[in-house]
């Protein structure tokens, strides 16, 4: 039996046991205004981006379709298929709000690397921009870890400006990639 099937069977059994025995199920999370903010992403977006692997490196351009849905009222799931010259990259990003940490949290995984990025961040004072930071493998290939920052700024309800930055050894943030997402649906 696959692990996921075993977990699903155990979860279903636990829920049914509580239901049959009259016991209450464990508390579930209630969506907050921070969770509601994530609904801005919901829809289908056309994304045009460009970036560079570093100073002196060639600029690359990409085009993507990003589909954003809510997982219940607590998580937004952004899935993309980005086409770069000579390659295609599929990715999934999930963002929610941790009421204990009082921070937005999330993950990123893609078809280019076997590393799952873990985010923490916040929405800025304007209420239009979410900034998420993560630590991950350095893009220099030196085997070290580096700090990264992704931001999504809602210019209006149909336009998102997205940026990705890396923190250099001097502590300064350097732009790696930027793009514009335009709502299709």
Overview of the molecule:
The protein has 185 residues and is mainly beta. It has 2 domains: 1-27; 31-183, Calycin beta-barrel core domain (Lipocalin, Beta Barrel). The protein has helices spanning 3-21, 33-37, and strands at residues 43-52, 59-71, 75-84, 87-98, 103-110, 117-123, 129-137, 145-156, 159-167, 173-183. It has a 10-stranded antiparallel beta barrel. The radius of gyration is 19 Å and the shape is globular.
How large a portion of the residues is in β-strands, by DSSP E? Answer: over 45%
Low-pLDDT residue spans: none
CATH class of the largest domain equals Mainly Beta
Please trace the helix and strand order, writing H or E for each element.
HHEEEEEEEEEE
What number of structural domains do the residues give? 2
SS-derived structural category:
mainly beta
Strand order of the largest sheet: 1-2-3-4-5-6-7-8-9-10
CATH topology of the largest domain: Lipocalin
Name a few traits of the molecule.
185 residues; mainly beta; Lipocalin; 2 domains; ten-stranded antiparallel beta barrel; 2 helices; 10 strands; 13% helix
Short description:
The chain is mostly beta strands and about 180 residues long.
